[in-house]
Design brief:
By secondary structure, the chain is α+β, with helices and mostly antiparallel strands. The chain has one domain: Gamma-glutamyltranspeptidase, small (S) subunit (Glutamine Phosphoribosylpyrophosphate, subunit 1, domain 1, 4-Layer Sandwich). The chain has helices at 38-51, 56-61, 86-94; strands spanning 18-22, 25-33, 65-67, 77-81, 98-102, 111-118, 123-128. The strands form two sheets. The protein has a four-stranded antiparallel sheet. Strands 3-4-5 form a three-stranded mixed sheet, covered by helices on one side.
């Protein structure tokens, strides 16, 4: 059965809401739609916030990519938003990647929302992905 929990199997769906902790305490909740691209979008969001120091809204608006075709049938395609620019896209193609250039704000790379605790001020910050209509709120 394709939905079995076993090596070499792919789940029918990958619903994957996420929560990030800082020093064992809640720091951020986030989630996206996008099937097999969900964990890839999560990693890109975390990288931009944790490693690159971006705020939530800036990280959500940054260009994204997914490895694998949108329909999940071609695992060797790299779908990349055109905002990465031709220099990056051409370099990836020269390295042997099968690059599929999407729209500047491509729906295929997920629609993400996030809410985080601001440690210094003790308040929430929230943002929604500019690729789609949405709202992020907390209490």
């Amino acid at each position: 059965h394709p939905n079995a929990l076993a090596g070499g199997k792919r789940p029918f769906h990958t619903l994957a809401p996420a929560m990030a902790l800082r020093d064992g305490r809640f720091a951020m909740a986030f989630g996206t739609r996008g099937a097999h691209g969900q964990p890839q979008t999560h990693v890109q969001l975390l990288n931009r916030i944790v490693d690159q120091g971006m705020g939530i809204a800036e990280a959500l608006a940054a260009p994204r990519w997914i490895s694998g075709s949108v329909d999940g049938l071609d695992p060797y395609t790299l779908r990349i938003e055109s905002r990465f620019g031709s220099e990056t896209i051409d370099a990836l193609a020269r390295m042997g990647h099968r690059v599929e250039v999407g729209d500047a704000w491509d729906h295929a790379v997920g629609h993400t929302n996030a809410i985080a605790v601001d440690e210094a001020g003790g308040f929430f910050t929230a943002a929604t992905d500019p690729r789609a209509d949405g709202a992020a709120a907390g209490w």
